[in-house]
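S1.2 Input.
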Amino acid sequence: MAITKIPAAGFTGNNFRNIIINGDMSIAQRATSTSGISTTGRFVLDRWKLNVDTMGAWTVSQSTDVPTGQGFASSIKWDCTTADASPSASDNIQCQYRTEGQNLQYIKKGTSSAESLTLSFWVKSNKTGTYIAELRDKDNSNRHINKSYTISSADTWEKKIITFAGDTTGTLTNDNSTSIDLNFWLGAGTDWTSGTLQTSWGASTSANRAVGQVNLADSTSNYINITGVQLEAGTTASDFEFLPYDVNLRRCYRYCYRINGNAIDDTMIGAVGYAATTSRIDNQIQFLVPMRAVPSVSEAVIEATPGNIASSLGSLFDNDGTKDITTLGFQLNADSGTPFTVNNIYLARCDANASAFIEFDAEL
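S1.3 Output.
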């Protein structure tokens, strides 16, 4: 049997050459649409952070509008619902993707052998004109490189390819923290547009980051759809790397793992456990994949049975980030009182409620 050697440079040219996870916009654990987005830090589609700094309001959704015949089923859509035709100087909008440093060591940034990176994607908007794509180095004082692209035809899917030169300055930290951001700018005030576009790697200069960027927020008629985002080592764009849905989903679980309830029956959260004490169910419930970091946790309508021991997360989890929730899983506890009967069996579940969920978040 022949054995294929994995190249020392990593998986470029083989599986997982695409640095971007969920570039085909197929995974949306949290929701398929969220309206009224007007602040930074929101997620709808997995791995895509929504940065809106007082520049209009938006509905962001997983759309079925895709380029014909390219194999995509979903795109991310930004739809302006509150316009801002005269943004303040500091206002800005970005669709952002963040990458761990330990996944980028093979691009050899900060060495004489630094690899170029090529970005390819499909885009559609009613708003033609100049847009900015940016790589930003979070490990080295926000060094950045910015390139423009043009949406030429309104309401038409267009493929864009942009090559960013390798950066021989600033090595990337080999850890699970953010090293490089990919930003799709959608609007920017003068703080970001008043300089000269930084088309080669250089020190952080705010005024050089979005020069020429159109204002997608200037009308409630405006929208943009993006899909097929691929960022890969080298100076040419290869065909989009489609992964099986289950592989894509498990890669997203590293950053967000959400269990949703439904309106028909109860939904299991994890394994059955027994009460070792009156305040603890002794069973470590493992995540499907190890998470990037100890996750934060949020929920709605969760209980332990029998007896409806808890109706909220606060009385089931001791979420101190060190004892009961780790990168590998969690253990149920009673933060207050002693509701459990020793040696009884308990099942953690979401109620039969379409609004019920439990979410573990370790996003960058």
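S1.4 Remarks. The two ends are 41 Å apart (CA to CA).
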